[in-house]
Amino acid sequence: MQGLCTIYGTRALPCAAADVAAAASPAAAIETLAGDGPASARFAVGLEGGRVVLSVIDAEAPALRRQVEALTHLVLGATGDEVDARGYEVVRQAAGAWQVVGVAWDGPSEAPAAVTPLVEAVAQRLLGLVLRDGRLLDPAGRALLGEGPGARDAQACVPLADDACPRKARSEERLASAGVAVNPRLPAMAGEPQVRLRAADEVARRAQALWAVAARADGIERYDAIDLLLRRGLWDAATPAEQEFLRGEEAPREVRLRWRRRAEALRTLLWALGHEAELGGLDAAGSLEDMTRTLRAIPAEAFVRDAALRRTAGEVLDAADLVYRAHWAIADAASRGAELPPGLHPAVVAQRHTALLWLLQHMKQPWTALAAEDSSASAPRAP
Question: d(Cα 11, Cα 128) in Å, to the nearest integer?
Answer without folding.
Answer: 8
